[in-house]
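tokens incoming
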């Protein structure tokens, strides 16, 4: 349990100089439990993320895969026969996620139903925290609707469609609390793609992702008491007919954010009723690296092509991230999803 007075006492313990101290707590507790205490100026805040893919492989007892994938990425070589196993290993990460409780449940039971119950336990803790911030339940409702909003054709998050009528100032407060909770990742629209995208971000246009894709998968099947083993097995073996594009997009967002990137996307008109869209934009020095995400082997990339022509003066490398093996197509690098952690360099 978070103890405000213990937090205040850290100031004097640090001054003593004999020990270093690590404090942990949810962002909600840290923000709210500050009444009548002095916040230590000595605190240095560090954001903790779920296990990244390399850490997940370590937990599985595998320290060889990521260095090997890095070598293939650096040399722009396909895995060929090894690709199928690499994708299955990655889908396991996509399903279990990086929350320690879920990973531990998988290692102890090898049972996806038990993994799902562990993830539901984490989500219920989030729900309790959201209720502390907003007893009306609207903040929790925003979080629980992330999968349904992201699965829409235009996957921009539409808070009014979720909450109905709500005061604009109150909505901004909800969204700020949701972003600050670190349970989510926000990607903002860049109105004028350039190196300083924070200068042109549109705070009224955004997507919301779950900070952990394993939790996202469980949220997507929240209507059940638990997500059945058969569903997980079909997902693991790539046999589920459901379009999983939004699940992969959430995972790409998670991996890019974990690597230290701010998340931006860009849309512009194609015709009167359709838009082109770049799913993610990365800054690299004075250049941009646009990314398009596909959940299948479908390797057309019209939006990338048009964007690269429009912004040729600032585009460096450009990527289509998908589920097939690495290859190049007229300057576009078609990258298997498991190599995403190596982007940005």
């Amino acid at each position: 349990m978070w103890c405000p007075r213990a937090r205040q006492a850290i100031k004097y313990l640090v001054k003593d100089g004999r020990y270093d101290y690590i404090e942990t707590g949810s962002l909600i507790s840290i923000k709210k439990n500050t009444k009548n205490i002095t916040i230590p100026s000595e605190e240095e805040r560090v954001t903790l993320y779920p296990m990244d893919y390399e850490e997940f492989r370590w937990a599985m007892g595998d320290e060889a895969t990521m260095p090997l994938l890095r070598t293939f990425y650096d040399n722009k070589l396909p895995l060929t026969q090894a690709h199928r196993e690499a994708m299955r290993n990655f889908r396991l990460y996509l399903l279990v996620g990086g929350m320690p409780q879920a990973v531990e449940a998988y290692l102890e039971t090898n049972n996806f139903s038990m993994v799902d119950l562990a993830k539901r336990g984490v989500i219920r803790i989030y729900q309790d925290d959201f209720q502390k911030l907003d007893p009306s339940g609207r903040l929790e409702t925003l979080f629980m609707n992330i999968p349904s909003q992201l699965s829409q054709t235009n996957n921009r998050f539409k808070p009014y469609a979720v909450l109905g009528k709500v005061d604009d100032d109150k909505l901004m407060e909800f969204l700020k609390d949701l972003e600050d909770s670190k349970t989510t990742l926000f990607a903002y629209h860049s109105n004028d793609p350039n190196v300083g995208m924070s200068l042109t971000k549109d705070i009224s246009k955004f997507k919301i992702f779950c900070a952990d894709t394993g939790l996202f998968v469980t949220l997507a099947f929240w209507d059940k008491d638990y997500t059945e083993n058969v569903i997980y097995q079909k997902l693991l073996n790539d046999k589920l007919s459901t379009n999983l594009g939004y699940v992969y997009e959430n995972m790409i967002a998670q991996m890019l954010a974990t690597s230290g990137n701010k998340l931006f996307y860009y849309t512009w008109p194609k015709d009167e009723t359709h838009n082109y869209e770049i799913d993610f934009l990365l800054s690299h020095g004075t250049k941009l690296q646009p990314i398009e995400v596909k959940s299948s082997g479908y390797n057309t990339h019209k939006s990338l092509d048009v964007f690269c022509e429009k912004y040729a003066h600032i585009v460096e490398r450009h990527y289509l991230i998908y589920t097939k093996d690495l290859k190049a197509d007229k300057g576009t690098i078609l990258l298997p999803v498991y190599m995403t952690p190596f982007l940005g360099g």
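note: The chain has a mean pLDDT of 90.
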